Structure formats: structure tokens, C-alpha cells
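Milestone M4 deliverable, item 7.
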Amino acid sequence: MSTSTETIELSIVMPCLNEAETLAVCIDKAQGYLARSGVVGEVVIADNGSTDGSQEIARAHGARVVDVPAKGYGSALMGGIDAARGEYVIMGDADDSYDFSQLDPFVERLREGDQLVMGNRFQGGIAEGAMPPLHKYLGNPVLSWIGRALFRSPIGDFHCGLRGFNRRAILDLHLQTTGMEFASEVVVKSTLGGLRVSEVPTTLSKDGRSRPPHLRSWRDGWRHLRFLLIFSPRWLFLIPGAAAFFLGLLGTFFLAIGPIEIGGLGLDAISQVYLAALCVVGYQSVIFAILTKIYAQHEGFRIPRSRNFERLERRISLESGAVAGLALFLIGFAIAIWQFVAWAALGFGSLDLAPTLRVSVPAALLMILGAQTIMSGMFLGVLNVGLKRQS
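Output delivered:
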């Protein structure tokens, strides 16, 4: 193994938290691969605070130990990646479930220019008892399908722990998550960032440890799902928000004409109030999705663009938001003034509640939507001012 920074091609990084039972065999397999293949490399153990002597075992078997105080799977891996000296990094768990002696497919793809090479356990084979049925038949397939659907990723196994990548390309993604969702973040940001992504078959063996794994099925599964949804504002905010907005808007204004009966269900002023609330929530969701995407693009994060969105972005500004919002607000305000004048003409006496609400609810809705539009335009203006200061 070479220690020269200039000549190291591959760093094999393993996160470690009390892996004394299996760490030595994993390091020996990795060292054996480097010796057999002739790849100039190193083995890096990113230790996350082990108390079982894992650090001493790693050093005794020729690995370089990097202490990572910040807790979490993602934190440990980023600490190891930051400290790695190789052009390429192959990361894998130190529980002897992955075979570090068979890394040729990863290295070949990396040398050919792929920037992220994922292992696929479903293609390579999963040993009996290596993966709980809940993960094998539900968790991993479903989460991977969601990831492919939301981000158009070619990866079939989002959560394979054995993966290789170009170190500089991954560092440029500015990965942020500290927990198990780090596995999803790597794939999602690599795909959205336009990196060359591929996968190779790999095998999964039964965990060699006698203690339970660090993974918590439901907690970590939810963290993966939450990351996938939040990182895709189109599906979490834009589409549901647009549906809620149009349903609430149409319902509010149809009921302004008079009561509606649908299949024996009578809708009147009270239903109109709730439909107006639905419209406001949906509108806010749509605005959030649009501003989130604009912010991400302004920050330099490369995500897929569409012609429709680019045209929309060119039209959105503080000024256009102020004009559109003011127009909506004034229409609503004019209706409110008209109602006030009509009420004054009656001597400010009692009013028929249902007919009055049918008009006042749309007026209030227009004023709220107008105010939201103005403030959203102002927020976009704040973003642009910040960008000018950075340039």
C-alpha cells in the first residue's frame, strides 16, 4: 500500500462504530484486493467513536483511522471521504456483508469515467438471512421505486452500502445529511447534478456480527422516504398544491352564485369557507414549490429544468408579483367596499348570513391570495439581492 498522496488511485472507506468482530476481516479483504489487482490505494476507517478497540484493530491491519466526532452514518462517511487521498472512493459497511476482495467491476466503471457506481444486491444475489424480509420485499424495492419515479434515476438499489465514486465529483455535491438517509442523498444529488451514474451487480452476505445492526427499520425507512419527498417539491408540494388550489378556487366561486347539490350532498356558505381555506393552503404550497426550485437553481445546484418553468421564472419578479398581487387584493377589497356600502344603506342592521357569506368569502379569498402573491414576490426580490451581494 502506498502512502504517497500523488499516487493513490483508490481509497476504500469503511464507517465504523464498534465493529471489532468483523473489522479485521473486512480490512484484510480490502488490502488483499489492492495487492492482487495492483491498484494503488489505501484503506480508511472512519471511526464514529468506537469503544471496543476497533481503532487499534484497524491500525494493526494496516488501515488509516480517521476519528469523526459528529455522530451518524452520513457524518462518519463524509469524514472518511474528506480525509481520503484517492481519486476514487469505494465505501462499504464494516460488518462483512460486502466482499471487499471483489471490487474490480467498480474500479473498471470508475476508470471508464462513471462518477457514481452503485452496487445492486438484487442483481448480484442476496444470501439467505442476509436481509430481513421486510427490507427485501418491501422497504428497499418500494423506496428505490419511489426514487426512480421522482428523480428519473437509473439505479435499482438505492440503499446498497457498497458503492464507488469519483471523490471530487461527490464532494462538489455538498452532501448534508448525517444519518442513514445519506445513502439516498448520494444517489439523488448525483442524478440531479448530471453525474454519470451506473450500477454493477454485487452480493450481500449475512452480517458477521453477533450484535444487532445499527439500522432501525421503521425509523431509518421513514428518514429515507422523508428525504425523497422533501427533495422533490413537485410531488410533495406543487402537484398536490395545484390540485387543492384549483378545487378550492372553483368551489368557492361556484358557491358564490348559490347553493350546489351533488348527489344528494348540499353545499352552501359553510362549505365555501372550507373550500376557500383549501385554496389558500394549496396556493401557498404551489408558491413554496416554485420558490424552492428557484432558490436551488440560483444557488448553483443543477437540477432538471423545463421550458415551461424557465418561462415562468423569467416572468416572476418582485415587480410582477406586486402588480398581480395588488390587482387581486384590490378586486377583493372593492367587493368588500361594495358590501359595506350596501350594509350602510340598510342602516347597519342584521344581514341574511348565507347570501352575505357567499360574496364575502370570495372577496376575502382574493385579498389573501393577493397578499400572499405580493409577499412571495418580495421574498424572491430578497433572494436576488442576496445573490448580487455574493457576486
